[in-house]
Specification:
Layout lengths: L9 H5 L2 H18 L6 E5 L14 E6 L5 E2 L12 E7 L8 H11 E12 L4 H8 L15 H10 L2 E9 L8 H6 L1 H10 L6 E8 L10 H17 L21
Pfam families: Methyltransf_11
GO molecular function: S-adenosylmethionine-dependent methyltransferase activity
Keywords: Methyltransferase, Transferase
């Protein structure tokens, strides 16, 4: 594993026709998702070999983890403050993590309320999953990972109070290595997206962090200022003291919350 490599064998796999085919689909899909997500801070955890934040417009975007990154980080113990990030992208991190649920807990911790997470993973119930079962002993990337189903990921997200958004599945053909077969089997991608949408070799899931019972709290000085500003409007409307019993600003309805 080279110093700039986030997973052993990743560089070599990304240079193969199959690796380029998978990355092309994932980058296009994630580009479409993150382009409409706004905020201030976005981080990509893992796979710095590909830029999954290139279509996002947040002022601070960086890659963290191992390899050629701006911030070295342990995915299970992120070096970021709680509620400090607006977007986290996890490309093929969970299936190669020793404790994937802990990684998600850390993502939940560092995201602001209403923050976004985008997860890319390999589908165990696909032709890619079949290839993994057949090649499990070889240990080459990406066939040695513990592939996680979409349903399991969504269950974990729900336990952490995430609301699942959109999801997509792609790369329906067998995990063939030769470009000529990828070209010939392109019809399977078009047919699979229509007739077997959950059977793609890879998936992308988008979810939003929800915090139950949250409401915007107005500062006390702002409540008083707004109450004073509204008082002349009430009098101007011709309301008498009989209609509106006298109250101090602090006792008025506008100052209670």
């Amino acid at each position: 594993m080279s110093p700039s490599e986030s997973f052993p064998g990743l560089h070599a796999w990304l240079d193969t026709p199959l690796g380029r085919y998978v990355m092309a689909w994932e980058v296009a899909r994630i580009d479409a998702l993150v382009s409409d997500i706004f905020g201030y801070n976005a981080v990509q955890l893992g796979m710095p070999e590909a830029d999954f934040l290139r279509a996002n417009r947040m002022p601070l975007r960086f890659r963290a983890g191992a390899g050629d990154v701006q911030v070295e980080a342990d995915h299970a113990a992120l070096p970021f403050a709680a509620a400090s990030l607006d977007l986290v992208v996890l490309p093929h991190v969970l299936e190669f993590a020793a404790n994937p649920h802990q990684v998600l807990r850390e993502v939940e911790r560092v995201l602001v309320p209403e923050g976004h997470v985008v997860i890319a993973g390999f589908n165990p119930f696909s032709l890619f999953g079949l290839r993994r079962r057949l090649a499990r002993e070889c240990g080459d990337y990406p066939w040695h990972g513990q592939y996680l189903s979409v349903r399991r990921i969504r269950d974990w997200l729900a336990l952490l109070s995430f609301e699942a958004g959109s999801q997509a599945s792609g790369c329906f053909m067998p995990a063939v290595e030769q470009q000529k077969w990828i070209d010939r089997l392109g019809l399977m991608d078009r047919a699979g997206a229509r007739w077997w949408p959950i059977g793609g070799g890879v998936y992308v899931i988008h979810a939003i962090k929800r915090v139950q019972g949250m409401r915007l709290i107005m500062p006390k000085w702002d409540r008083k200022a707004r109450a004073r500003a509204l008082a002349p409007l009430i009098q101007k409307a011709g309301s008498s003291s009989r209609d509106f019993p006298r109250k101090t600003t602090e006792e008025s309805d506008f100052g209670r919350d």
